[in-house]
Amino acid sequence: MGSLSVRKLDDHVIARLRIRAARRGVSMEEEVRSILRTAVSGPERLGDLATELFSPNHGVDLELQPRTPHAPPKFLE
């Protein structure tokens, strides 16, 4: 397993990380690992993200409005 050092973080960022980690009951290091894991494990395509967030498996059941057919456009010759 690799390791990573991050320098020159603002004091405000460190404080927010400390609070966030404390709320979850984990170390700051574990909190940073979790944030990085989440950041790089997202879906590569926007459609996959939409499916993940708005599928019936996640409590969202969208009903599409009925569509009426229309005549094809007429182009000038």
List the helices and strands and how they pair.
Blueprint: H1 11-24, H2 28-40, H3 46-54
Helix pairs in contact: 1-2
Radius of gyration, in Å, reads 23 Å
How much helicity do the residues have?
Answer: 40-55%
Structural class: mainly alpha
Beta-strand share of residues: under 5%
| N-to-C series of helices and strands | HHH
Residue stretches low in confidence (pLDDT < 50, at least 5 long) are: none
Structural features:
0% strand, 77 residues, mainly alpha
Description:
By secondary structure, this protein is mostly helical. Helices cover 47% and strands 0% of the residues. It contains 3 helices and no strands. Helix 1 crosses helix 2. The chain is elongated.
Structure described in brief:
By secondary structure, the chain is mainly alpha-helical. Helix content is 47%, strand content 0%.
